[in-house]
Design brief:
- It is built from no helices and 11 strands.
- By secondary structure, it is an all-beta fold.
- The strands form 2 sheets. Strands 2, 4, 5, 6, 9, 10 and 11 form a 7-stranded mixed β-sheet that branches.
């Protein structure tokens, strides 16, 4: 089992910054990718930024140049630095990890943290 706990969400004005953290605990060995997804009201959940075990990074086009994903392996923590925030970035942000197990690949989600960007 992998437990993911997000923190760092909040209310910020447009143009501001926030940094989200996702602390992973439990059986974190053989996590393949870990990163951030978001879901705005009335919309489907979408990938924001993910980082693989080989340090390959993917960003959604909508956040490229504004968001940066990073991780601290010693702390089992992944960060999402969000700059130049826009009202359309308002959403619940979820940490996600997928892990190889004997039964196949399993997906894990955190409880989410709310990010609200005011105009």
């Amino acid at each position: 089992q992998v437990r993911l706990v997000e923190s760092g969400g909040g209310l910020v004005q447009a143009g501001g910054s926030l940094r989200l953290s996702c602390a992973a605990s439990g059986s974190t060995f053989r996590i393949n990718t870990i990163g951030w997804h978001r879901q705005a009201p009335g919309k489907q959940r979408e990938m924001v930024a993910v980082i693989s075990s080989g340090d390959s990074i993917n960003y959604a086009d909508s956040v490229k140049g504004r968001f940066t994903i990073s991780r601290d392996n010693a702390k089992n923590t992944v960060y999402l630095q969000m700059n130049s925030l826009k009202p359309e970035d308002t959403a619940v942000y979820y940490c996600n990890a997928d892990k190889t197990t004997a039964a196949g690949t399993r997906n894990y989600w955190g409880q989410g943290t709310q990010v609200t960007v005011s105009s």
